[in-house]
Structures are given as C-alpha cells and as structure tokens.
Amino acid sequence: MMERGNLNLSVRIRLLFTGMILLAVLLFFLDILFGSVSYPAWEVLQALFAPERVDPTLRTIIHEFRIPKAITALLAGVALSVSGLQMQTVFRNPLAGPYVLGISSGASLAVALFAMGFPILVAGGLAWTGTWTVAVVAWIGSFLVMLLVLAVSARVNDNMTLLILGMLFSSGVGAVVNILQYYSNESVLKSFIVWTMGSLGSITGHQLYVVAPAVLAGVLLAFLKIKDLNAFLLGESYARSLGVRIGRSRLVIFAGASLLAGTITAFCGPIGFIGIAAPHLARVLFKSSNHLLLVPATLLTGANVMLLSDILSQLPGTGTTLPINSVTALLGIPVVIWMIVKNRKFASL
Amino acid sequence: MKVEQRQVTLQTENLEVGYSPQGKMDAFLRRSISLSAVSGEIIALIGPNGIGKSTLLRTLAGLIPKVSGTILVKGLPVDHYEPERFSRLMSFVSTEKLVVPLMTVAELVAYGRFPYTGWLGTLKKEDHQRVADALQKVGISHLSGKLINEISDGERQRAMIARALAQDTPLILLDEPTAFLDISNTYAIFQLLHELAAREEKTIILSTHDLHLALQKMDKLWIMLDTTTLEGAPEDAILKGWLQRLFHDDKVGFNAAKGEFFFRKEPVGTLSVEGNGRACTMVVKALERKGYQVNRSSREEIHVAVREGHKNISPEWDLLIRENRRTFHSIYDLVSEL
C-alpha cells in the first residue's frame, strides 16, 4: 500500500517511472529522426554522436534545427503539464489548465495588444530583438489572467464558470485579432497568426538559454510546493487549518505556473490541451493523488505526449507538417471529453 | 475531576463574528460572544439555522478573521500564534463532504501529520504510528487501504475524525459532523466523540441540530440566540428554560420534565382511553400525535378500550363511539378511522 509521503515506492511505480524515462529518450530520438527531409536512422545517429563524419547540411539540420526543436518539445511538455497540474489542484477543478482557463489566451491577448502597439518589434516573425519583450509581455499577460481567474473562482467555485471565463478570453483574443486584422499591416498580422498556431520550431539555440532556465525554475517551484499542493487537494479550509499560509503559498504556486505556461506560450504560441490532459494521464497511470509522485509523473507524461505530438505533426514520411496546436488538440480533446463524462458521474455521487 | 484542575483551552471575550463582504457588516446581528471550554469536555454549539454557528466555528478555527473581541487559546490570544504553531493546537472538520479521487483512508488521515512533517511531507516512523493509532481509535483500521470515495458517509466521517486525531491537537472543532449521517451513524459518532473527549483529554466542540442527542451526550451546550449566547450543562439549559428560546415558533415547545420537544396544537377533540401495557402507551402516543387530548380517568363520548396482547395473541383496540363498537388490529387503522 502506498501511503502519503512514503517513498517506499511499489514495483509498479518504479517500473512506470523507468518506462516513462526510456520512452522519453526513444521519442526524443524519433523526434530528431523525423523531419521534412528524411535521412536514414544511422546517419542521424552519426550526426548526433560523430558529427564530423556526416555532411554539413545534415549536421546543420540536426544541430541547428532538430535538436533545439526536440528540446523545446520536451520543455514545453514538461512546463505545460506541470502548470496544468498545479492549476487543477489549486482550483480543485479537474478541467483547469493553462489553455482551458484562458491563461494561454491571456498571454496571446497581451502579445496581440503589444503587437498592435509596437508593430516594429514584432514584424518579421517575432524576431530575436522582440523575443525578450514578447516573452515578458506574455508572462505578464498570463499572470494577470491567472489572478483574474483566481478572483472570479473565489466567488463562484464551479467548473462551468471557469470554463465560460476561459471561453470568454478566447473570444476576447479573437476580437483583438479581428481589430489587428483590420488595422495592422500584413507582416505583423501574419507573424501573430502564425504565433497563435503554435510552433516548436521557432526557438533557436539562443532562446533555449531563456526557455530552459525559466522552465527549470518553474519546475523547481512546483517541487518546493509539493506539500502545499497536497494540502490544497483538501480545499482551502483544511489547508489553512493544517498551517498552510494560503495567500503566500498560492501566490508562489501561481507565479510558478504562470512562469511555466507563460514562457512556453511566449516562445511557442498557445499550445492547448497538454496542460489539462497530461496530469490526468499521470493520475490514471500512477493511481495516486500525492504530488510527490504526481509532479514527476506529470512532468514525464507531458514530455512524452508533447514529443509524440511533435513527431505526429511532422507526418513522418510525407514531408509536410501540421501546426502543433492541431495535433495536441486532437490528442488532448478525447482525454478532456473522457474527464467531463467521468466527472458528471462524480458530481452525482 | 474538578473544573479548576482542568485547563481552559479556549475562551472568547466579547467576540463578534461575521462575514463582511464589501463592508456589509450588518449581515449578521451583532452579538458579543463570551464562551469558554476546558480540556476533556465535549461541547455542542446549538442554535437555529443561519444564526452563525458555522461562522463562529470557522472564526475559532482561524479560517476567517474575527470582527472584534478576543479569542484565547491556551491562555494566549490567537494572533500570537504563527499558522504552523496554531495548526498543532486546533484541528477542524468541516461540514463539506470531501471528494478527492485516488486518495486512500490512510493517506487522508496522514494529512493530520502535516504540521509535523518536513518540506516534502514525508512520514517518519512516529507519524505512521500516529496514523495507525488514530485509525484504531475511531475503529476503521481495516479501511486504511480503501479509497475515500469508496467508503460510506459514516466511515468517511470517522476518517475525518481520525485525521483530526492524528493532528494531535488539544482542541478539535467539528462543523455539523453528523449532517450527512443516518440515525445509527449519528449515534455512533456522538458516542465516539464523547469517549474521545474524556479519554484523550481533548476539548471537542461541534455544532449540531440534534438537540435530543446533544442533551444526552454533551458536557456543555453553547446556545446561540439572536441577541446573546449562553453556556452551561444541558441540564442547566433545561432548568433555566434556555431551550425554549431557540424556538420563535409558538407551535414547538420543550417539555422540561421529559427533556423532550413537542408540537403545540389546539386539540382537535377529546377522547378517553382505557387499558394497560405498551399497546395502550402507543395508542395514546398516536392519538396525541393526531392532536387529541387524551383522558385516561373518565369516559368521553369517543372511547378506546385496549385489549393487551399476550404471547400468541395480538393486541386489539376497540373504538366506541356512543354505543357503536368497532375492533381494530393495528393502531394505524384505528387512527385512520377517526
């Protein structure tokens, strides 16, 4: 029996963790292997481990594009799923997640408004000069929406309200995009729309030096708050009566969650459904509500799902690619539907 | 044990409680609350719906801020305690039904160890022992591996109490712990809490609407009224007529002699009953419930004669209206006829 806080992990849990890590390594390699130009696996392996032996084109493709993209996929999966887990726990709402709650939309909205205000910085595919600014704007946007959602959910604590709020934010983004369409020049518009479709490929090696530490910091914050996250499972009253400083703790958790979701949204655009689906998959696989297990489990699940999505988005063997957002939606929506159906049963308990 | 030897664990002085959303302070009638509790005693907080029992309990538990006045826990004002320290003094069981998927009973009870564990919340040997003890004290050791969403309401309430016990606090506050429970579970929980208070030397304070049980099992009542709060033994409350004041409705009364509540009604009629034994007691009860005034000494126009049952003979009731006699084999049939 697995007791709270007990690190005597069962064999099943150990196997799951090992399997997940091996799967992540495999998917990471497959993600590098597949792309718009196909190369034999052994050549890609050579490019990875003995780059001087392969031709410069392949070397460039692998090292400048595919590896950063695979790392981005890994980081995005980790970040979105962990932030989703934190939100689901703090809101005590199984449907919470950065995309559903409008956190990603908030970041988008902020970026869109920013793009309208300072088109020069954004033109040319959210160029390197503007990336930092866009990242900061997206962070601020996501954090503000998070606070707003928090304020609303403190008054009306039910799933429907939060979902409607998320929908409203998406509509809000749509409205701003319309305005943008009306007034902006084409290049700003195109870069924004491409940004909203989500892309793991737009991150260069340099930007990874921003994204990776930000994600790492966010994950670290999540680990630091494992105990409090567990307390939030029982609801605010119990958490408080167990000695948790609610306000402070929630602020730290939300700062971490916004950092994670905001960073990925800033650099890759709003990527949906990983944040809501991965924590549920982790719960189903690990059969636990303890965050000591769930945080690492969710992180691995998210990374795997995101890598898989990226591989699928390349439509291996066809030479074309799909927007990553469509793939995550198609993979994640069935999980969300399953959650809603299951939850209805729950509510009538 | 004399009261002086017991430690005063909780005391309020001129406390005012209430929610103040957007400064609407008058949502609650302002009343100043001065109450006290000692160790080893169980107290029921009673009062009509909406009087603010939950608000008082939640204020005492430090979940919502007080409006004014003082709350002393173990002789010190509550503001004096850091949240971490306070969580080792007072545990709370809310009235809300906890639904958390994939959490076992043992995991739930282990939450009680939260104030004592490190930053990851890992349990040490002593914590495991405390959890096992708590489960055993409430009699659900056999359920420790079950999921909390798969056990009954009564079992879940026991698990919640075990969680509070594992928290190892001198004070335990429970907001309507029997709200979701059937009669037998309600009795069992009252009995359990009653025993725990005495045996574990804890102060247990609970709110309830079950006056009948509160009168039987509590060491003290805290009675919340519109303008004041009163405290004393259940028997004091009966003697001083405090319980009457709980009812604004003239139709409900409290019979101090029987220690029971009754409904006041204009009698629908008078009749007489003749006979002995339980068959007679029960028919009187039924007739009174129907609003008749029952005359046991002289004969009225409507008369019921009871023939008591024996080993193999069921009791029978004869209804005599003037000279017209009819025999009934159940009280239900008799009463329906009237």
Q: Which regions of chain B have little confidence, pLDDT < 50, spanning 5+ residues?
A: none
> Which fold name corresponds to the CATH topology of chain A?
ABC transporter involved in vitamin B12 uptake, BtuC
How large, in whole angstroms, is the Cα Rg of chain B? 25 Å
Q: Give the tally of β-strands of chain B.
A: 17
Structure description:
- The complex is a heterodimer of chains A (349) and B (338).
- The model of chain A is unreliable at 1-7 and 345-349 (pLDDT under 50).
- Chain A has a single domain (19-347), classed as ABC transporter involved in vitamin B12 uptake, BtuC, CATH 1.10.3470.
- In chain A, 78% of the residues lie in helices and 0% in strands.
- Chain A is built from 15 helices and no strands.
- Chain A is globular.
- Chain B is built from 10 helices and 17 strands.
- In chain B, α9 (277-289) links the parallel β13 and β14 (292-295).
- Chain B has helices at 53-60, 83-86, 105-110, 125-137, 153-166, 183-200, 211-217, 234-239, 277-289, 331-337; strands at residues 8-16, 36-38, 42-46, 68-73, 76-77, 90-93, 171-174, 203-207, 220-224, 229-232, 252-255, 260-263, 269-274, 292-295, 302-307, 316-321, 324-328.
- Chain B is an alpha/beta fold.
